[in-house]
């Protein structure tokens, strides 16, 4: 490609490198290690020509070449169109269950730059960083190449608070696009998802950071203790309720028993309904409640309403008709945020169906969490 994206500018927060240096010293000696990548469609590898061209695999390959004595396991937990609100609820199953030694977290183009997503992102960071196996964590901040929009500002505040090394595409790849030295369509078809050349540039910025840490790995650094939360910290303990771990009261909803085949085979483990008036009710405990359902490009499909504690006045409409054309969307609607702690009832019912519905309403999960302390 021959692009000069000034990779040295991408290492936007050095943080505390105790875990990263320890990881590299162990890898140099020869060991077995697991490298995990958690994020959205960019981490998944969308629009790269093959999975070995996505940035995550290229970073994995950097470790393989740098540390030939160690056997590395590659875990790609990228799921397109999802935010850190979903990431924190699935990280236990999709990442931490593999006992990772190293985790990249990438959600800056999926989250909005708001206090809400700063809180969900912090919950995810705390759950990963505080895991009993103490993985090394690297934060990656991607960006929209046409507008420069991302959640990096809010996410970097979390990275700084936890002294986590962080890498940004804003002063590197995006800066070259904004200046006209790189044309958008050379590296991305849609100003968001990198093509194979774009993924190579992302990987170059990340591995430059890793090279810099590699050069310092024999310099001792004291460990960093987990600090108090920066936000209200209501999402660190988020869990997903699906048909394998809860038994809701169903009237017209049926559990989907189709096995899940891979990490981004997400329309599994939920419940379906097709008749107007069908209901499903959950008893949950927490301060945060969200519902996750399928928005379908095959229209029409039913519309539902979600009600918490019988409050019909504030019912949330779950319109499963998706107006985009890139594929079905795994959509989350938040029903309650920082509500009083305790037990709550969540009821979802179909309010509108059509004679020619192309698919049933698919409820994927209910996501519940509880605030950990008063702010």
Can you describe what's shown?
The protein is α+β, with helices and mostly antiparallel strands and 375 residues long. The chain contains 9 helices and 17 strands. The strands form 3 sheets. It has a 6-stranded mixed sheet, sandwiched between helices. Strands 7, 9, 10, 12, 15 and 17 form a 6-stranded antiparallel sheet that branches. Helix 3 runs parallel beside helix 9 and helix 4 runs parallel beside helix 5. It is globular. The N and C termini lie far apart (49 Å). The mean pLDDT is 96.
Q: DSSP strand (E) fraction?
A: 25-35%
Mean pLDDT: 96
Summing up helix and strand content along with how strands pair, one would put the structural category as alpha+beta
**Cα-to-Cα separation, first versus last residue:** 49 Å
The H/E string reads EHEHHEHEHEHEHHHEEEEEEEEEEE
- The outline comes out as globular
Radius of gyration: 21 Å
Which regions have little confidence, pLDDT < 50, spanning 5+ residues? Answer: none
Please provide the count of β strands: 17
Oligomer: single chain
How are strands sequenced across the largest beta sheet?
A: 1-6-5-4-2-3
Biggest β-sheet, characterized? 6 strands, mixed
Fraction in helix:
25-40%
How many DSSP helices? 9
Main attributes of the structure:
26% strand, 375 residues, alpha+beta, single chain
Tell me briefly what this model is.
It contains nine helices and 17 strands. With 375 residues, the protein is of the alpha+beta class. The strands form three sheets. The protein has a six-stranded mixed β-sheet with strand order 1-6-5-4-2-3, with helices on both faces. Strands 7, 9, 10, 12, 15 and 17 form a six-stranded antiparallel β-sheet that branches. A five-stranded antiparallel β-sheet has the order 8-11-16-13-14, with no helix packed on it.
């Amino acid at each position: 490609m021959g692009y000069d994206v000034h990779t040295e500018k991408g290492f936007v927060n050095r943080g505390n490198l105790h875990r990263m240096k320890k990881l590299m010293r162990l890898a140099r000696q020869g060991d077995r290690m697991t490298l995990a990548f958690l994020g959205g469609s960019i981490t998944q590898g969308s629009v790269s020509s093959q999975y070995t061209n996505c940035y995550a695999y290229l970073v994995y390959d950097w470790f393989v070449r740098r540390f030939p004595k160690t056997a590395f396991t590659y875990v790609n937990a990228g799921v397109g169109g999802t935010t850190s609100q979903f990431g924190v609820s699935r990280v236990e199953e999709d990442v931490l269950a593999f006992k990772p030694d190293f985790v990249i977290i990438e959600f800056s183009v999926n989250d909005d730059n708001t206090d809400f997503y700063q809180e969900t992102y912090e919950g995810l960071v705390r759950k990963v960083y505080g895991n009993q196996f103490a993985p090394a964590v690297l934060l990656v901040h991607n960006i929209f190449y046409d507008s420069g929009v991302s959640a990096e500002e809010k996410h970097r505040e979390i990275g700084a608070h936890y002294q986590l090394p962080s890498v940004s595409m804003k002063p590197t790849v995006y800066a070259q696009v904004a200046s006209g030295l790189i044309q958008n369509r050379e590296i991305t078809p849609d100003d968001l998802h990198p093509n194979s050349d774009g993924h190579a540039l992302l990987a170059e910025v990340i591995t430059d950071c890793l090279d810099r840490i590699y050069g310092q790995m024999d310099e001792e650094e004291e460990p960093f203790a987990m600090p108090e939360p920066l936000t209200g910290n209501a999402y660190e303990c988020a869990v997903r309720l699906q048909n394998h771990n809860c038994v809701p009261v169903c009237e017209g909803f049926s559990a989907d028993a189709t096995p899940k085949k891979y990490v981004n085979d997400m329309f599994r483990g939920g419940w379906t309904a097709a008749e107007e008036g069908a209901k499903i009710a959950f008893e949950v405990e927490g301060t945060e409640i969200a519902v996750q359902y399928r928005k379908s490009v095959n229209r029409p499909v039913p519309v539902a309403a979600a009600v918490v504690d019988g409050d019909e006045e504030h019912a949330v409409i779950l319109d499963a008709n998706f107006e985009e054309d890139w594929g079905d969307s795994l959509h989350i609607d938040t029903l309650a945020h920082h509500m009083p702690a305790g037990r709550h009832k969540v009821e979802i019912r179909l309010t509108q169906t059509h004679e020619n519905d192309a698919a049933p309403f698919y409820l994927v999960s209910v996501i519940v969490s509880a605030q950990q302390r008063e702010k």
